[in-house]
Amino acid sequence: NEYKxxxxxxxxxxxSMSSLTPLAALTGxxxxxxxxxxxxxxxxxxxxxxKLANDTKHSKPQDxxxxxxxxxxxxxxxxxxxxxxLGSIVSTKANNTFGRRLVIIIGxxxxxLGSVIMAFAFNWVFxxxxxGVAGFGFGLQMTTIPQFIAEQMPIPWRGPFNVMNQLxxxxxxxxxxxxxxxxxxxxxxxxxxxxxxxVPGILMVCLMLKVPESCRWxxxxxxxxxxxxxxxxxxxxxxxxxxxxxIQEETLEREQGKLGEEGTxxxxxxxxxxxxxxxxxxxxxxxxxxQQFSGVNSIIYYSSTIVxxxxxxxxxxxxxxxxxxxxxxxxxxxxxVIGVERVGRxxxxxxxxxxxxxxxxxxxxxxxxxxxxxxxxxxLSWVIVVGLCLFCAGFAPxxxxxxxxxxxxxxxxxxxxxxxxxxxxxxxxxxxxxTLTFLSLTSAIGxxxxxxxxxxxxxxxxxxxxxxxPETKGLPLEKINSLFERQLLFPPCSPMPNENEFxxxxxxxx
Length: 510
Known about the structure:
The protein is built from 21 helices and no strands. It is mainly alpha-helical and 510 residues long.
């Protein structure tokens, strides 16, 4: 009740924050376009790899040889993730210097260029290079977009729009799966599959040209008048005093020299010395780590391959089955958009992980039975499809969007660029390891044991986040990190924060 009273007083004190102006809506939707780009790139490779291996099986082995050398498939897929990690590192300095909006635009143009390069690839090395270019582009974008949305949106819309970014990822995956299916019988269809990625990249850039720079970035980079003007335009009113005071307070704290210049060693040491930021950073890194080591992107990248292994003979049918998995992913992300501000981040995350764990155990048991009972082989193959769908249904509303949502919220402005870059680097590095080793791991220990390994990691995630993750729903962006400063453990039964917990901390207290 105390928490509800605080939230009610906050929204009443700045009524415009509870409404969504047309400019704020356009800003949010333009930002979520990044999610569509990333989702299309993830999903398109599932069908493109199957089509590519078939179209090039009579080519010279040194040019393609994908059936003979599975490691080449893994390198092609993983290259985008490796360069995305590089993009997340570069984004720290780029965001601090050029602003959120320009970094997102540049990332979109780079991604479009990479898509064109892939479409004209003449061997697997050139295709890998194109994947690397595209990966660097969405690495810049995916690190930046959680901050951009969190800094621009009113409190009631901050969570939904960050989850909507994940919704657009799932939509991109679904559109790419449908595209793969439609082009499955087209000669050299994989070129069209990959090249079409440039279209959403250019469209997203056009939308971003219509929206303003982050009001908080402007305020923190010596342009307070412009920052306040953008804030008033986003809220649709000049009555933004309470929110602007929070922004000014954090700007003053930064100017008093708590941190040093972002990207420097002194700045990194300041982050590690600050107990609240250090705890938040560990939570952020583990959110991204557990997201990837649950095996999600391996399931999406190789869904067609998994379905083929399950016993569905037709390659074209396997490609279309991956579209079914993508549709489930998209529909259940809508649950996250609705639930993130109703049930809260923590409850949604733990529920998501629980469903994922059940799905992984189902896949473990089912794959262990394949080859032992030939009479039930066809039935078991469909159980695997159900397991994949159940996994996506669990992942989509919670573990999919919330790591990015929370990493955009839990850090103070003075270190947000660096901290989010570190957590993004953890995501891309974990993603790269899982994706690069998935096919080799299933060949070495079998699909059953591979999914059992993912299940064990997911169980650890449930335990960790039950204890160490606070609820951030409805809290002012500038005050969330103070939760980590005040306590270490946040068990599920812990009370929601009340108004007294948000007394501003002075620089000296830090």
